[in-house]
Structure formats: structure tokens, C-alpha cells
Amino acid sequence: MFLQCNDIRLFIIDLENIEPRYDSILTEAPKEISFYINCEDNDRCEYFRKRRSNVQFWQSNHTDEKFVPMMDFPIVLHDTIFEPYETVFLTGNLNDVQYATKECISTILLNTVNGEVDRNKLPDFEVQTPEQLKEIFTNKRKGFFHEMVINNESGIGNFKLLTLRHQLFLNYTAKLVVGGRFFVDGDHRCYSHPLTQMIRLFKYGNKNTFGKLARVIKSSLDIIQSNIKEIDIITHVPAKPSKVDYLEALLKEQTFKDYSTKIRSDILKAKRDYAPQKNAGSWMSRAYNVHDEFDVISRVTGHVVLIDDIVTSGSTTMECARMLYNHGAEEVTIVCMGAMQSNSDAGFKNPIICSNCGGFLKLKFNKHDGSVFWGCENFYSRGCKSTLNYDDGRKKYNLQNVKQYHEEDNLPF
User: Fold this and answer.
1) Strands 294-296 and 303-311, sheet pairing
2) How deeply is 117 buried, as exposed, middle or buried, from its count of CB atoms within 10 A (0-12, 13-18, 19+)?
3) Own/partner pairs for 103-107, CB < 8 Å, 24+ apart?
4) CA distance 161 to 335
5) What whole-number distance in Å separates Cα of residue 218 and Cα of residue 254?
6) Is 314 helix (H, G, I), strand (E, B) or coil?
7) How far apart are CA 64 and CA 158, in angstroms?
8) DSSP 8-class letter at 21
């Protein structure tokens, strides 16, 4: 799902960082979508010029300037009639994904040229083949599969299989399955992102979230079991002694009946209430903060899947993984509900105003089936029952993402 895009009307295509094998599929994009292309290869430019009527080129519009995404997205939008909420940026350069996000532009990363994707800077879509790009154009591929589960979407989902390494003991590594993103409070995407809001409620013990989040975790377990390696044991990162262990409660959901003989919630325990990770500082400091803070109650064997809610630095999960390795695990795979994303720095937008009472609308989840919708914050205090369909509210929120003009654009002379 393109969280920040309402209807795609413009592709900004960074051909300089996209392999030519994608060119033919790109030309098959819906005809109503305009192209704005950055490319210094005249032959490739001519290829697109012959096949698309609504195409502009950075090269011809700005002949003396090299395209620099971090500076030039506002210029590109100014060159066109389109707004950020109508725009998608396509590139093979992961760093430029962040610059697009800062301008509230949705992103597709095509077969990265910079190596493994940074789990803290994930695009809306990542594709490895031209066929996968075509699936986006035909609306078959919908985005990260954890986010699809929360949004009740069917279709093809994305997941990332990455590698986590212990910050203090570099020989300890584990696979990390990422099926969704988690946005921080200061990120404008947090407000309209259902998975983020559901995880936040889960961390406060809201049991209405258990059913959906159990399906989220199970979708990852199914992928591991089918595509990676047979699972021998499933356990989780334990809560501190003074806290309620919501992950343990979640793993008791009926959703996990097919894995019930593999689930063992009694393997790991936290020795004490260690200091909060968010106060520890750097990622290295976080690793020191949780060093030797966990015990393994009994030996384990084989392939162990370790469940956590959010992975930020990975320090806590990797310390638990280290203990599992030291007590018999041959391989550890980590599953998280969402990977913490770096703040886009785009600035927070205004919440949606309730048309009935003037309060704010916020994301809510049906207590029966977990479906997402917008509801008024004054439901309990004033009895306001105003609601809004999720997608309608998301689009209304995105209408605030308008292009920013430079001050000189508005001078009267």
C-alpha cells in the first residue's frame, strides 16, 4: 500500500539508478500516469519518448544541473501540475528513498544498487524482478504482508529477510523476517498507519489487538516453515519481571494451534528490570544496556524462532539470540511485528477533524474482527459516534501533503 499516495498520477523515475531490464515494464504502466525521468543516456530517453506521450526529462529541462534528489524533489513537482499525494518515486538507490519520504512522496525501490536494504529505511515497495513491478501496476502486489493482514487486504505481499548481528559479539548473527513497518510518534506516517497504531495498543495490553496480531505473526511463521527452514521451537523475548508478558499471552491465541507443540514460552526470562532501551542512547549503548540481562531456563536444540513486537537496534533480540545459541540452538530466526523506521523529518500533519463535534479522528479497530476505521476521540467523553472509512480518512489526511514553493516563486515581480 502506498500510505502517502491517494491516486497515482506521476512517476518520478530515476533511471540513472535503475537497471535497463526494467525499462519495458515501466513503459507498460497505466497510460494516465505521467513520467518525469532523470536519465543521461540519450538512447534510453528516446526509448521512453517513443512509447510514452506524457513524459518529461530532467536532462532536457535542466541541462546544466545534475539531478540531486535531496534538493530537487520540490523543483520536479514545481515543474509539473502534481502534488506529493499523487506522486511515486522509483529508484534503485536506497538513500534517495529517504529524501522522497521527507517530501511525503511514496517510493518503489527496484533491485538496490547499494546492497542489503536498511531495515530502518524501508520503501513502500521493493521489487527484485520486472515481473514484481508489473504486479504493482496491476494491483496484485499490495505491500508488506503484515500491513496487508491488518488492512484485510488480499494479494501478494512483501517481506524482507535480513541479517542481524550482535553489536558486542560480532560472530553471533540471526536472520530477521520483516513483514511490516513501525513509525515513531514524530513521523507524520504514524497517525495513518494501522499496523503502527495496533502495535502501540498491544504494548498497552489491549486484547482487541491479539487476534489480528496473532495472524500477523503466524503469517511470518508460515513463510519461515515453507521457504526458509523447518521450525523446531518458537519462543519470545520475555517481558521484564515487573511487567505483564503480552507476547506470552499472544502466543496462546487459537491462531497458533498448528504450532502449539513447538511454542515454548518458558525458555527465556529477564533477570531484572533493566533500564529502558529508549534511554540508553546509541545502538552500542543499547547493546551494553541489555548485556547478560537474560537467562535460558532449559537447553534448546535445532532451529529456534524468536518473536518480538518491534525491532529497533536489534540489541535486545540479539542478546536473547546469543543466549539461545549458548544453550544449544543451531540457528535463530527473529520475527517482529514491525521494524522501527527512521523519522522522515517531514513534520507532523494536522489530524483529521470530526465533522460532527470538531474533535480529532483517530484510527480504531473493530473489537469483533479487528477491521480498521476512523473514529472520533470524543466517543467516550461526549458520545460522538462519527466514523469514517479507513481509506477515505487516509486520503483526506494526505491532502495536506502539498508541494512547497520557494519564497521567490511568489514574488510580485
Assistant:
1) unpaired
2) middle
3) 103/73, 103/74, 103/77, 103/346, 104/4, 104/188, 104/344, 104/346, 104/398, 104/401, 105/4, 105/12, 105/73, 106/2, 106/3, 106/4, 106/5
4) 10
5) 11
6) coil
7) 39
8) G
- Give Rg (Cα) of the chain: 23
Residue type, 58: W
**pTM of the shown model:** 0.92
End-to-end CA distance of the chain: 43
- Nearest CA to 209 among 196, 191, 222, 223? 196
Identify the sign of the CA torsion 204, 193, 347, 108. positive
Indicate the pLDDT class of residue 402, thresholds 50, 70 and 90.
Answer: confident
Closest among 244, 186, 243, 255 to 214, alpha carbons compared: 255
Q: What are the cell numbers at 76?
A: 520536479
- Give the DSSP letter string of 359-376: -BEEEEE-TTT--EEEEE
Q: Predicted confidence band at 408 (pLDDT cuts at 50, 70, 90)?
A: very low
Closest CA to 37 of 52, 405, 25: 52
Distances (CA, A) of 120 to 106, 116, 411: 16, 12, 40
Yes or no: say if 296 and 268 are a contact pair by the CB < 8 Å rule. Answer: yes
C-alpha cell at 215: 495472524
What span, in angstroms and rounded, lies between the C-alpha atoms of 146 and 178? 9
- Number of residues assigned to the chain: 413
Q: Which residue has the higher pLDDT, 233 or 367?
A: 233
Give the phi and the psi of residue 55 in degrees, each rounded to 5: -130, 140
Q: How far apart are CA 407 and CA 275, in angstroms?
A: 47
* Mean pLDDT, residues 307-324 taken together: 97
Q: Grid coordinates standing for 405? A: 514553493
Q: Which of 186, 125, 192 is CA-nearest to residue 344?
A: 186
